[in-house]
Amino acid sequence: MRDPRAIAVALALLPAGLLPATVALADDDTPVGLYIGGAIGPSSERFHPEDYSLRAQNTGYQVAAGWRPISMLAGEVNYVDLGRAYSGINYADTDGIAVSALGFLPIPLVDVYGRLGLVDWRSNVHSPFSSFHRSGSDLTYGVGAGMHWGSLGARVEYQRYDMTVASTMSLASVGVTWTFL
Prior knowledge:
Blueprint: H1 4-13, H2 22-25, E1 33-47, E2 55-70, E3 73-87, E4 90-104, E5 111-126, E6 131-149, E7 152-161, E8 166-180
Antiparallel strand pairs: 1-2, 1-8, 2-3, 3-4, 4-5, 5-6, 6-7, 7-8
């Protein structure tokens, strides 16, 4: 079995091999280069009942840093916080670091993209009688669309996290990006 961290590093470094093509393939209106961003929106958490029966519909957020060497490809690192899931007096906090590759469709004026990567997650579960922690590295994927006005961009995105302890972990978000041109 391959080490998930080695795969994450390979995904993060994939755009580096495309650096020479940055100038040749970049559209005049598509900002390429390093960028930062943030997003907020409704998150959904549903843990497997045999592990611990918790679920939530609340607000999550993510903070991102990325590099878009060409108009059709980007690599991104995100911190994501999915909020707190409750069941009576028991609760769980879930967050993680994700490394993803983003592929953009060549559509004028709108950035339509898909995302595929790995998330290194942790859940801290608390009850009045005990507390425990779970962690792991699993698949994350999603779709989104955005627009940009010079260095400033706006996004809407839906992202899923296939965490082994959960039947559903997702974040639907609205966010902004800033590209350092």
